[in-house]
Amino acid sequence: MAPDLFVEILIRAMATAGIVVGIAIAVERLGPLVGGALAGLPIVIAPGFFFLMLKQSTEFTVAAAISSLIALSASQAFLLGYIVVARRTRAAVVVASLCWLIVAFLLTGFHASPWAGVVLFLVTTVSAWSLARLFEAPHTKARVRGGWTILLGRGIAAGLLVAAVTVSADWLGPVWSGFLMTYPIAMTVISITVHQRSGAEVVVATLRSMMLGIGSIAAFTFTLAITLSPFGDFLAFVAALAAGAAITCGLTLRFLRQTN
């Protein structure tokens, strides 16, 4: 294995494990609204695109960023699918994953500009967020079931899954590389963990908040796609990180005011 690929796998795996554990703790300490908002931070996807820029041409990376932006509509389908059946079954992640696969397959043929991609994301987000409201119910402070060992184990498992996806993405073209960058591995583990530790009402509220939270990833991929060619790798990457962080900070502050 090439050293740069090993470093990429290690960073993305650690970032995924960290965000899974961190979001579970945030939901329990700060509430599902804040936890869902923080889940959108591009901690997992950013290292992937950093190494992609080092290994691939600008055109390849731009195409992958656009594909990732489009794939976020499939992520909204994942979240909505989980929310719809969360109170009926603990295997809601199976339904959610099927929703992602169906929508992702349909969207792989959707060749678009970054602007069309962001419009698609906004329409999908508003639609999914509005529908998810029908399944929300009042909830109390997150009650915690399960110990730290299980939580850490799930975080490590998510990191290993990201490592496997990272290796696979190296063999694919820009479209599927972009889609795999945003495959909801962290969302999957966060959903299962919050559901089992805190119950259906809390996971529904968390995932509905996450629908807005992944606007941070959308901002990251959109900014990267439109700035990479004119400004170069370094400035485009910094601008994309700043755009993603701004969305997360704005949402977090808004939700903190709501919960206080």
Question: Overview of this structure, please?
Answer:
The chain is mainly alpha-helical and 260 residues long. The chain has helices at residues 3-30, 32-38, 45-55, 58-85, 92-107, 114-132, 148-169, 174-181, 185-198, 200-213, 215-231, 233-259. Helix 6 (114-132) runs antiparallel to helix 11. 55% of the residues are buried.
State the gist of this model:
With 260 residues, the protein is mostly helical.
Question: Could you outline the blueprint of secondary structure elements for this entry?
Answer:
Blueprint: H1 3-30, H2 32-38, H3 45-55, H4 58-85, H5 92-107, H6 114-132, H7 148-169, H8 174-181, H9 185-198, H10 200-213, H11 215-231, H12 233-259
Helix pairs in contact: 1-2, 1-3, 1-7, 1-9, 2-10, 2-12, 4-5, 4-6, 4-8, 4-10, 4-11, 6-10, 6-11, 7-8, 7-9, 9-10, 11-12
**N-to-C SSE string, H for helix and E for strand:** HHHHHHHHHHHH
Approximate shape: globular
Let me know the number of strands.
0
- Output the number of helix runs: 12
Quote the average pLDDT.
Answer: 83
Query: What share of the residues does DSSP label as strand, in percent?
Result: under 5%
Q: Uncertain segments of ≥5 residues (pLDDT<50)?
A: none
Q: What key phrases describe this protein's structure?
A:
globular, 260 residues, mainly alpha
